[in-house]
Amino acid sequence: MNEAVTVQDRHAQSARSSLLPSGEMKRGFGPAIGLAVISAALIAMFTNTERWQGHWVSTVGQLHTIGILLTGPIAAAGACWLGGRERRRGLGELRSSMPRSVLMQTIGASAPAVAWPVGGYFVAAAVVLVSTWPYATVDSPPLMLIAADLASMAALSMAGFALGQLISWRLAAPSLAVLVYAILGSTAFYGDGFFSQLSPTVSHYGLWDRPVWWYGPVFFVWMAGIACTILLLAGRRRALALAPLAAAAGAAVLLVNSGDDVWRLNPETSALVCANGKPKVCVTELHSEQLLGVEAAIEQTYAKLEGIPDLPEQWSENPTYKFGDVIAPEKRVLNLGFGEASVNPTMGREVTEPGRYLQEIAQELAYGNCQGGKWTYPPQSSAVVEWLAGSPDTSVTYYGARPKGIDLTVAWLEGASESERNAWLNQYFDAVEKCDAKQVPPS
Predict the structure, then answer these.
(1) Which residue ranges run through the membrane (predicted)?
(2) Which of 20, 234, 257, 321 is the most buried (most CB within 10 A)?
(3) CA 295 to CA 276: how far, in whole Å?
(4) Torsions phi, psi for 344 (to 5 deg)
(5) How far is CA 381 from its chain centroid?
(6) CA triplet 188, 194, 196: central angle to 5 degrees?
(7) Kind of pairing, strands 272-274 and 280-284?
(8) Closest by Cα among 50, 55, 345 to 209
(9) CA quadruple 272, 275, 276, 277: dihedral positive or negative?
(10) Alpha helices in 138-261 (DSSP H)
(11) For the chain, percent helix, then strand, then coil, each to nearest 5?
(12) Which of 71, 347, 395, 64 lies closest to 205, judged by CA?
């Protein structure tokens, strides 16, 4: 009898302590969830810094997609386990005998399950933003997207906690983690439509884009509305739950109807900065500190092509360019937005991979606007790239042995007289202009 009373008293004491989050917030499973969220987010981000650490939009976008994709399931599963613990211990029945309202009891019980994942994500986001600060020299971070991410973590955690209270199955937490990961992953990378626009991991690829001012706040309302609705329903305040539910529904309608229109070209990062030499070389403000490196690569390439007529007169980045757009023969579009060197965080301070620029220029000249379509990638094309750039063509992957024709053509270009080489190159570039690989001269 005394043992039964002791167990009941222990559970009652646990219930009372959970009403005041100070005890549960400092010990138990909550801090472990927060630490797991921090670790997962930082490991995911810092294993591929070359993809984001040079630009604010890339940084926040990577956090928004990869960060939530990996930490969201952890938050939901951890909260589900804590909610299930409430059910397994029968703490709900004990709380029903206490004077505090069900809502206040629910807030106290769910606080560790929600606050620790949200706090963990906040810490991870702060570390990531601080690490980007020395390298991102243009624009500012869209902080409201970070706030929306915090609301997403709260919604996932609250949903997991409420589900754990309803389901007694012990495998509910890991099963929920798998389910959340599958849903977030599918909407992040493969979805296109209704669910993707509402997903916490919705992705957008546009280095020169920035969300409209209201996008972050509206997405915050969408996620926070869900979290508050679940909290009020769990606290048996169904009438009050209608308010955040209506706010979430309104935000959802606005997000779905807006689609990708919420992203606009950012004039601060997309404005062109040009050098004074010939040919004319222009890059966007986002890559302004790469201008000298790009210009040097073009000058080095043109020096090899001295005597070749009708070379492009202008090389420029074009944030609105899409593959397949018609470009005048005298112009070339620089693609500095993607690739290892172009987004290397130290590129803004020092050119660490000048060979990447040479490859970019050589590929543009060797393929023109004919990559794909009628172009069949003859060995001579890769040979021209290799001869101009001084390194093998990175745009072509060989499934098997490297074609012998490449080495033969490179050797011929290096050993031929200037007149012979220029005659061959003139014929080659004429074939490129016509996008007719059959007219490429033999080496």
Answers:
(1) 28-46, 66-84, 105-131, 143-164, 171-191, 211-233, 240-259
(2) 234
(3) 10
(4) -60, 130
(5) 33
(6) 10
(7) antiparallel
(8) 55
(9) negative
(10) 143-166, 172-185, 194-198, 215-234, 238-258
(11) 65, 5, 30
(12) 64
CA distance 17 to 4: 20
State the alpha helices, DSSP H only, in 341-389: 354-367, 379-389
Q: What does the alpha-carbon distance between residue 119 and residue 41 come to, in Å, rounded to a whole number?
A: 12
Per-domain residue ranges of the chain: 2-265, 271-439
**Does residue 117 have a cis bond before it (omega within 30 degrees)?**
no
Residue 211 zone, left/alpha/beta (φ > 0; ψ -120 to 50; rest): beta
**Four-point Cα dihedral 307, 309, 315, 321, nearest 10:** -150
H or E segment to which residue 210 belongs: strand 209-211
Percent of the chain at pLDDT > 70 equals 81
Both structure tokens of 40: 């997962």
| Rounded Cα distance, 207 and 357, in Å | 19
Q: How confident is the model at residue 343 (pLDDT cuts 50, 70, 90)?
A: very low
CA–CA distances in Å: residue 114 to residues 6, 81, 152, 324: 30, 12, 11, 48
Cβ distance 238 to 186 under 8 Å? no
| pLDDT tens column, 215-238 | 999 999 999 999 999 999 988 889
- The SS3 of residue 264 is strand
Q: In sequence order, what DSSP letters do the residues of 282-345 get, joined into one string?
A: EEEGGGGGGHHHHHHHHHHHHHHTTT-SS--SEEEE-TT--TT----TTEEEE--SSSTTTT-G
Tens-place pLDDT, residues 237-259: 899 999 999 999 999 999 999 88
> pLDDT per residue over 120-151, tens digit each?
999 999 999 999 998 887 888 999 999 999 99
Distance CA 110, CA 114 (A): 6
Give the separation between CA 368 and CA 435, rounded to whole angstroms: 8
Burial class (CB in 10 A: 0-12, 13-18, 19+), 412: middle
Cα gap 241→219, rounded to integer Å:
19
Q: For residue 171, with 0-12 CB atoms within 10 Å meaning exposed, 13-18 middle and 19 or more buried, which class applies?
A: exposed
Cα 339 to Cα 321: distance, rounded to the nearest angstrom: 17
Residue 95 has which token pair? 């709380």
Angle of helix 143-166 relative to helix 102-132, nearest 10 degrees, comes to 140
